[in-house]
Amino acid sequence: MLEGLLIGLQTAFSIQNLLMVIAGCLIGTFIGMLPGLGPMSIIAIMIPVAISMGDPSAALILLAGVYYGAIFGGSTSSILLNAPGVAGTVASSFDGYPMARQGKAGKALTIAAIASFAGGTLGAVLLMVFAPALSSVALLFHSAEYFALMVVGLSAIAAFAGSGQVAKALIMTILGLIMATVGEGALFNLPRFTMGIMDLQSGFGFITLAMAMFALPEALFLVLKPKDLKGDDGEIKDLRITRDEAKAIAPVIGRQSVQGFFIGVLPGAGATIASFLGYAVERNIAPKKEQDEFGKGSIKGLAAPESANNAACTGSFVPLLTLGIPGSGTTAILLGALIALNVTPGPRLMIDEPQIFWAVIMSMFIGNLVLLILNLPLIPYIAKVLAVPRNFLIPFILFFTLMGAYIGQNNATELLILVGFGICATALKFADYPLAPLLIGFILGGMMEDNFARSMQLYDGIAFIWERPMTLALLIIAALLVVLPSYRARRSKARADGVADGD
Amino acid sequence: MWNFKLGRRALISAVAAFGLVGPVLAEDQVVDSIHFLIPGGAGGGWDGTARGTGEALTNAGLVGTASYENMSGGGGGKAIGFLIENADSNHGTLMVNSTPIVIRSLTGVFPHNFRDLTLVSGTIGDYAAIVVGKDSPINSMEDLVAAFDADPSGTAIGGGSVPGGMDHLVAAMVMEAAGKDALGVKYIPYDAGGKAMAALLSGEIAALSTGFSEAVDLANAGEVKIIGVTSEDRVDAAPDAQTMKEQGIDTTFVNWRGFFAAPGLPADKLAAYQDAIAKMYDTPEWEEVRARNGWVNIHNSGDDFQSFLEQQEQQIGDLMKKLGFL
């Protein structure tokens, strides 16, 4: 391994390659901030440039920079504008945006940068040490377990089911699950609930819905309720993290980097599931007092999904590099790039072309490090976006939102759907319905249904629930995650009412 | 949604085609410009085919300039509808499409079918393959059929398309040709080829129905075994992989890709497009694009294209009726 590291270092530390990684990080960060352009599209845009360089190592280093930059840039728009551009950063907006609203945008971005860096770096260490052994982990899960994993992920909605909100959160989750059934699913060749409208054939787009649920109502809310302005005066304070805060988030980052990495290794899971699970788990193991902070600007609630999704992105390289199987859209595109450069990923890559394998690993370290160094000084300037006067900021957000929905598919109908849902979402927001559970339900619903239906088919019924111990275990964990907090809440409420049960 | 299935070959092409080199003026230019209409988003199989073809045509000087438009929606149906409704203003447009136009027209997902368009040429194709994991006791189609006979519900065949989609139809077609009941085949759908491949390696499914080009690299790396290819003769890229025909299963299948134009296209324009595409095959520029993507040249022009499509429609239609999809 040491030898490999040296090979990788030698490759990575040439002036040309360092410039590549810096350019990649900058391009990735800035384009990644635009919703609608996730890592996948940015890498697709950059690949011709990378391929034309001809040198696989340099190309990979450039792409790794772009990849990490794009992930980081995506969290920026989630935090500042509540406009998550990719599903993996939805969870980052749960606490990141409230922090920004409280004037702590700088701090939120700093936490995101550090958590991302730690997640990516720890992930790369795990990848380096365990890659060959991990190929079997990647193949451990069958559809039944993926289904159970999605159920665990759904328990993240508990964070939005505060007192008196349980029914509302449940309704919104179910609404999200229902919306996920629109269109022609992967398992049926019949369109469902499309009402004969051709544009609904492929279902609602993620970006469209994310913008309609988060960014658009936020902007409209600012217009319709201008009184609600406290903390929105554009002042950026609290750039630094205090020692106590660092102490509080360090274990979260550590746990979520490892957990996120392993979820990322599974080809059917990925960064989105990792971020929701990370959020749910950290909320549940947090002490009662901090638990209530989740969803309202908790630093732990931001650090958890940020480290988990970055670690998961690194983890998704395991099936790509060791088996030659792309587990996510982004790794599928990278696989294409590798093949175009005459590199065939797979079990023989480490043996046949170790310099490439190690260059990938080194590029991950360097990419993460460069990103941190580049971005920390930039944060105050990026956060200044919020200091733009509101009558300029709101049109900007609206433009940003509409563009995000249009840019991926070039389909103008998306805009109508966006505005329609945006108005519904604004009404729901006024009625104090939490919108995040809807989006969580929508994102997980499709995958949950597919995996459930597949397992049903394979086992001719629901026997897989008890015939596969891992499925059962995951489902029990999910049940505990949902039941325990509400039980605890009820007990503490009962205790407060003076009918404590003598603990 | 197989039109978004991220076939690895398609991806490379999508990706590579972004880097277009400026048009080279040549004396043998056949068409001034072509506007490619792509019924799916950037990065899919259709996208790669259109951009790759455009790249070869312009670089070889057969076409002056090429432009591209992605119009997704309706699983590709929106672009077809657009081309038909705006036929008169779209004489300069070529739309890329593939086997799904046949299947989806049959199921009624598309209100139109290929007869509503002007057929230009089928240009490339990919064979289908049945694949098993490297440790599987199954080594040939005969073994697979035997395993199926022994335990039909335990011998699940997976694929990266919806039931009634291409991967399913290939699996059913092969079993039918082997004298088994196509309806009895347990087909498990996955939403992308990569995930279906992971399921095969994890042992969730016994065999996988997929595109030959998507399996060939893993087969050469020793991760999977290709037990049957739906080509007439063995394919050079994997000379050890037996064809279905060799194993007594009399069936062939080609997942083609090709180009269509608006209905009512003047005959001289159609001839010019077909001429440009026909000449493209002899150019080194096309060979470069083709090799990079691992495409197989399967050229059907005009009437040949029509009869090819009719024959495929017949083959697929019969099977879908048998399977209860029609």
List strands and helices in order, with pairings.
The complex is a heterodimer of chains A (503) and B (326).
Chain A: H1 2-12, H2 15-32, H3 39-52, H4 56-81, H5 90-101, H6 105-138, H7 143-154, H8 166-180, H9 206-224, H10 243-265, H11 271-285, H12 288-291, H13 299-315, H14 317-323, H15 329-340, H16 349-352, H17 354-383, H18 390-407, H19 413-430, H20 436-459, H21 464-467, H22 469-496
Chain B: H1 8-17, E1 31-38, H2 45-59, E2 63-70, H3 77-85, E3 93-98, H4 100-107, E4 118-133, H5 141-150, E5 157-159, H6 166-177, E6 187-189, H7 193-201, E7 207-211, H8 212-220, E8 224-229, E9 254-261, H9 267-280, H10 284-293, E10 296-301, H11 302-323
Parallel strand pairs in B: 1-2, 1-3, 5-6, 5-7
Antiparallel strand pairs in B: 3-9, 4-7, 4-8, 4-9, 4-10
Helix pairs in contact in B: 1-2, 2-10
Counted beta strands of chain B: 10
Question: In total, how many domains does the architecture of chain B comprise?
Answer: 2
Global structural class of chain B: alpha/beta
* Annotation field: number of helices of chain A: 22
Radius of gyration of chain A: 22 Å
Biggest interface and which pair forms it?
A-B, 56 and 59 residues
Mean pLDDT of chain B: 85
Helix coverage percent of chain B:
25-40%
The CATH C-level class name of the largest domain in chain B: Alpha Beta
Largest sheet of chain B: 10 strands, mixed
Q: What does the model show?
A:
The complex is a heterodimer of chains A (503) and B (326). In chain A, helix 5 (90-101) runs antiparallel to helix 13 (299-315), helix 9 crosses helix 19 and helix 9 (206-224) runs antiparallel to helix 20. Chain A has helices spanning 2-12, 15-32, 39-52, 56-81, 90-101, 105-138, 143-154, 166-180, 206-224, 243-265, 271-285, 288-291, 299-315, 317-323, 329-340, 349-352, 354-383, 390-407, 413-430, 436-459, 464-467, 469-496. The model of chain A has no long low-confidence stretch (mean pLDDT 82). Chain A has 22 helices and no strands. Chain A has one domain. With 326 residues, chain B is α/β, with parallel strands linked by helices. Chain B contains 11 helices and 10 strands. In chain B, strands 1, 2, 3, 4, 5, 6, 7, 8, 9 and 10 form a 10-stranded mixed sheet that branches. The interface between A and B is large, with 56 and 59 residues.
